[in-house]
Amino acid sequence: MAKDMTLLWGFGSPPCWRTMIALEEKNLQGYNQKLLSFEKGEHKSKEVMDINPRGQLPTFKHGDKILNDSYAACMYLESQFKSQGTQLIPESAAEQALMYQRMFEIPTFQEKLYYVAYYEYFVPEGERHDSALKRNKEALTAELQLWENYLQKMETGSYLAGKKFTMADVVGFPVVACAFRNGLSEERYPKLTEYYNLVKERPSVEAIWSKDWQKNPQGTDKLKDL
C-alpha cells in the first residue's frame, strides 16, 4: 500500500513532520519520499507546483489522490487505514470532543510561534518593527501558558487529549518540538517539557527525527526569554 504513496517534504517543517508521523503510526513505512530545500526554493519548483499550486510542503499523493494540506493528509490516512496501526481518533464521544478541540487549536499555536521564531522570514526587512515583534512575543507567551495550563489539569503522563496518543498529538507535537528547538525554557514550561519528552520517545517520532535535530535540538534561542 505504501508503495503507492509519495511525500514531498521539507526539513524542519512541522506540517511535514505531522504527515510523516501519521504515516509511521499507521504502519505505512516504505512510501516514496523526496526531501526538498526551502532555502533553494524547491517548494516552488515545477515538480511541486504541478500538483500543489500553492507551492507548499508537504505534498502527498496516494495513487491518483492528492492531499496538499497536512491536516487533510493525516485525516485521510486515519480514515483509509483505520484498522491499521495506532487508532488516532478515539471511539468515545468525550475523548473525540477533546481530541478535536485540541487538534483545531494547534493552528493558532503554530501561527503565533511562527511570527516569533520566523519573524524575519515572514516580514520583509522594511516592515519590521520592534513593537510588532514585542506584541507577537506577548501573544505567544499567552498561548504557551494556555497549553501549559491544559496539561497541568491532566494526569501525569498524559498526551494532549488524554492518556491515549491521538490525532491531536500527531498535529500538535511537531509545533511543541519546534518551540523547544527555538529555545523554549524547560524551567518555565515544565508540563510542556514533560509532554515533549514523552512523545519524542515514540517509535514514530524517532523514525523520522532528523539527525540534525537529534544532535542540535535547540536550533535558535529566539524563545529563551518567553
Automatic annotation (TrEMBL):
Pfam families: GST_C_3, GST_N_2. GO terms for cellular component: mitochondrion. Residues 3-85 form the GST N-terminal domain. One of its GO terms (biological process) is L-phenylalanine catabolic process. It comes from the Eukaryota. Coiled coil: none annotated. GO terms for molecular function: glutathione transferase activity; maleylacetoacetate isomerase activity. Residues 92-218 form the GST C-terminal domain. This is Glutathione S-transferase A. It comes from Chanos chanos. The gene is LOC115824656.
